């Protein structure tokens, strides 16, 4: 398929009409607006990434598993460290986005300066063309009027050819000669203006073609630049996902080294207090001083034990004193 170009499809049949040129300028203005919108989008996205990165960095600094120990503690430490790295990678992403937005801004400003000079030149040509066209059309009207005046003067001379009034005929002839001179002068001026307008038109045609080619070149550059900018932006986002996944993988690897039984044994060995339970508390009888090896202490009060008859007294001596019972008739309590 044959390529279409600005210079072939934005003409107008009216010499003073700027419809085709205006359509191109509107298209360029829309493209400039698109560049600004993409630029603003990337700046806003960079601000979002920066805020997210700072919030995530602050979150990674908070205590997480401070009281944990052994392999799980190592995994949690790796988790916090990698979250910090993820936040830093998002900060880097925000900076990269701002750099791309800056490039787009510079590109847009560069195109703006080139367009400004070219538009000023074309506006001047349009004004010059319109001025010469108006001047030419005015001279054409004057020329046509002078031609009509000449014809009318000639007709008056012809109509009065047979009159005997010589003075009147000379007067009509003089007017006819003046009308002819005026018509010839108007014709010369009209022809001069047409020639000047032709030169202006030729210059405008060349500059219009050059402007179309330049504007088309700018449009091609803008579309390519925007396409590449958005492509780069998406690559940055994809790379951020890859980077984050790589950092998360470090956490997963650390969790693979986290052994539940090892952590349990580590805690046991570190904080063990003894391998024997306390002995059972036995019941102790307040009166007998005996302990029941099996029965646990009862919460009921101890049973009342009734005492038996008093035992018979036994004979004993102390310091030569003899105690005896009073059974015989010659009872005496003390014997010497």
TrEMBL record:
Pfam families: FCH (PF00611). It comes from the Eukaryota. One of its GO terms (biological process) is actin filament polymerization. SMART domains: FCH. Residues 133-163 are annotated as: Disordered. Residues 94-128 form a coiled coil. This is Proline-serine-threonine phosphatase interacting protein 2. It comes from Seriola lalandi dorsalis.
């Amino acid at each position: 398929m044959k390529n279409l170009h600005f210079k072939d499809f934005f003409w107008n049949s009216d010499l003073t009409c700027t419809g085709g040129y205006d359509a191109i300028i509107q298209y360029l203005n829309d493209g400039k607006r698109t560049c600004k919108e993409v630029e603003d989008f990337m700046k806003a996205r960079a601000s979002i990434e920066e805020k997210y990165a700072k919030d995530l960095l602050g979150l990674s600094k908070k205590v997480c598993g401070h009281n944990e120990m052994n392999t799980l503690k190592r995994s949690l430490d790796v988790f916090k460290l990698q979250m910090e790295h993820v936040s830093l990678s998002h900060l880097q992403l925000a900076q990269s986005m701002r750099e791309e937005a800056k490039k787009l801004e510079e590109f847009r400003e560069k195109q703006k300066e080139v367009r400004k000079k070219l538009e000023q030149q074309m506006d001047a040509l349009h004004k010059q063309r319109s001025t010469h066209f108006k001047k030419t059309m005015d001279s054409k009207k004057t020329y046509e009027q002078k031609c009509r005046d000449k014809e009318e003067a000639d007709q008056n001379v012809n109509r009065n050819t047979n009159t005997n009034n010589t003075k009147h005929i000379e007067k009509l002839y003089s007017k006819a000669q003046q009308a002819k001179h005026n018509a010839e002068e108007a014709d010369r001026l009209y022809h001069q203006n047409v020639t000047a307008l032709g030169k202006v038109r030729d210059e405008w045609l060349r500059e219009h073609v050059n402007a179309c080619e330049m504007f088309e070149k700018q449009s091609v550059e803008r579309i390519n630049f925007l396409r590449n900018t958005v492509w780069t932006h998406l690559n940055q986002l994809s790379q951020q996902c890859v980077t984050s996944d790589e950092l998360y993988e470090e956490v997963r690897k650390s969790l693979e080294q986290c052994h539940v039984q090892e952590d349990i044994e580590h805690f046991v060995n570190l904080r063990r207090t003894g391998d024997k339970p306390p002995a059972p508390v036995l019941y102790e009888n307040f009166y007998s001083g005996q302990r029941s090896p099996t029965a646990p202490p009862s919460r009921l009060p101890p049973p009342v034990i009734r005492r038996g008859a008093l035992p018979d007294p036994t004979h004993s001596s102390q310091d030569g004193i003899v105690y005896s019972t009073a059974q015989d008739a010659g009872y005496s309590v003390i014997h010497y």
